[in-house]
Amino acid sequence: MDSAAYAAKTSAMLTSVPLLPQQEGWAALPRLPQMLGAALFLAAAALGTHLTKDSLPEPSGLFLFFFAVLLAAVRFGFWIGIATAIAAFTLFNFLFVAPLYTLAIAKPGDLLVLAEFLCVAGLTGFLAGRLREEANAAKSRAAVLEVLSAFASDLAEADEPLAVEQALVIHATALAHGPALVLHARDPNASLEVTDLQPPDLQAPDLQAAERAFRRHIPQDAAEPGQQGGRYTFLPLMQQGQVVLVLGYHRLDAQWPDRFARAAAIEVICHQANLALERLRFAQAAEDARTAATREQLRAALLTSLSHDLRTPLATILGAITSLRQLGATLPPAARDDLALAIEEEAQRLASYVDNLLHMTRLQAGLSLHLIWVDPADVIAAAVARARRAFPLAEITADLPDLPMIRAESALLEQSLFNLIDNAVKFSTPPARIAITARVLPASLTLTVTDQGPGIAPDALAQIFTPFFRANPNLPGTGLGLTICHGITAALGGSLTAESPVADGHGTAMHISLPLPKVSA
After folding, report:
1. Is 439 helix (H, G, I), strand (E, B) or coil?
2. Architecture label for domain 177-284
3. Do residues 438 and 403 touch, judged by C-beta distance below 8 A?
4. pLDDT per residue over 192-240, tens digit each?
5. pTM score of the predicted model
6. Omega prior to 515 cis, within 30 of 0
7. Of 1.10.3210.10, 3.10.310.50, 3.50.50.60, 3.30.565.10, which CATH number belongs to 367-515?
8. What is the mean pLDDT of residues 65-72?
């Protein structure tokens, strides 16, 4: 995620968990704006009762006051609802029950009606207030769960520690409804450093609290307003007894009824982030182990190849040179020519082995490419000319349409094509007939080398790109040619696939697919 997308997502998540009203719950006391609002509801009910007392039955006034109590409870909570019910009882008795403008009650029936009103209004206000608070709490819990779900999704997509840290800061910011940040230390003895994920406004007490969380391996809570201490809460994430990072988030307002739920949710995402970081660490360790095992396997295979495949040409060359040196004067010209030819052929064979080993070593170390605009037809023509010189008895044809320019390294692409032709000639029944074709697709260029040999067995087809694998061990070679082609093609951004049989149960086709550059509008 780039910096712009990260900043945009952080800003969007900041308001994803709505804040509940500050005064909420049993322990919260009514505030002046709430009491004034309830008073306005009662005043409206009193005015409505006064205007309709001559045109509507007497109980209608009770319903207006009852409605005012209900509105106050729904809008401001159950304490305001109960207080409004008591105030409505008193106000209705004072204004509309004889004797007027006193709290005395002349008729026993009116006392019963008012008592019933007080009970019903109080119970209604209590229930309405509680329902409102439960609805707000449920809304907050749903928003918190949505953040946790989104965080889990982000962790599932994270493929590096930085992505985990970005997700942690984004969702901690949403839950804390304020800034969050991540701190690291290069080693256990170094000081903590703030990452640039979120520009912090840390002060000296905040940094001291972060250091304590890092050194002591325990959370450090933010100080309450007016007290000495930092404004951030710091949570250490630990693996194998070491703190891998420290998450800091701004103190949660004490007036928020759901602040404990938010703090618990932040601890949950820290635990999930810690598991994700551990998963990535294990995955990296497994990948390093696989790389090391592959390297050791390649080293062993190289040693085997050096001791086996290079021994024969070296022995032939040494034997021929020894014969020429010791018996050259007594040998007939034809015999000397045969020995010289053997030296030349085995030297070329040895050079081919060494070239393949060098290419393989370069692929294992990682290619440093210099891509330029290349005409595929020129590269194919160069590979075909080189192959015709190497295999004069083979019939090699190239049937090509008009091909677009591509971005590639011509020497590597030519080497890959030559290796494919070399492999096709080697596995073909003489006389070898090799065809090179090309097909242009909307997004790629496919070059195909096809032979008419016996084909490759299905169980061997899946392994032909494995280093030192030979489908026919009786034939000469190191088993590196196709591996080198596969590595070169991958380095150029393409792919190499094999198809066998091609037609009538025989033949093999090797397809090199290279991406075509996107044409700007």
Report:
1. strand
2. 2-Layer Sandwich (3.30)
3. yes
4. 766 655 556 778 888 888 888 888 888 888 888 777 778 888 988 888 8
5. 0.51
6. no
7. 3.30.565.10
8. 77
